[in-house]
Amino acid sequence: MTRPAARPARILLADDHTLVRRGVRLILDSEPDLTVVAEAADGAEAVAQARSLDIDLAVLDISMPRRTGLQAARELARIRPGLRILMLTMYDNEQYFFEALRAGASGYVLKSVADRDLVEACRAALRDEPFIYPGAETTLVRTYLDRARSGGPLPDRPITEREEEILKLVAEGHSSKEIGDLLVISPKTVERHRANLLQKLGLRDRLELTRYAIRVGLIEP
């Protein structure tokens, strides 16, 4: 008796560039064991989709409007702890790599070589194995994950997750009222967070906050 084939892994794909999503979808849907069942254009939409859909893997761009892929990954790790997460990025940057691991991702794929690495990375993530773009040491990944799982000390973050959310939305040009509505907090609380950000980062105004947000990859220039 022939055993029925296992169903393909169901993937949520999030990227704010339609052409990128289309290309990545073509790569994934051409594989018999992978299928894209949902797409999102920003991190907030990705979280909403993951709440309501049966998915096995989320492939998230790091830089997206409203909520970055890293912010979305943190939320998904909280609300869907069994969900595998893979980061897709144009940045060959060690800081982003470690932030991705901290956020709960098991892999980090460069867009420039997605046609070569993405399928392998998806399969590794679904096996709960770490994946990193060639050139970095897998042992480094395993050491970091072991430290994180055992409660060992991790590198300090310069700002809190909430401050990061505020920073991103300020840099995108949202008013305090708009930010308050998006995050369900008062405009006064937004202003307090903004003042704390300026003080912590040694910056003077919205323009400098925006430059900082670009530098650390929260928004694209």
UniProtKB/TrEMBL annotation:
Any one Pfam family match given in the protein's UniProt record, by short name: Response_reg
Domain HTH luxR-type: 152-217
GO biological processes: phosphorelay signal transduction system; regulation of DNA-templated transcription
Domain of life per record: Bacteria
Keyword ATP-binding: no
Modified residues (4-aspartylphosphate): 61
Keywords per UniProt: DNA-binding, Phosphoprotein, Transcription, Transcription regulation
Record bears the keyword Transmembrane helix: no
MF-aspect GO terms: DNA binding
Residue span(s) of domain Response regulatory: 10-126
Protein name: DNA-binding response regulator
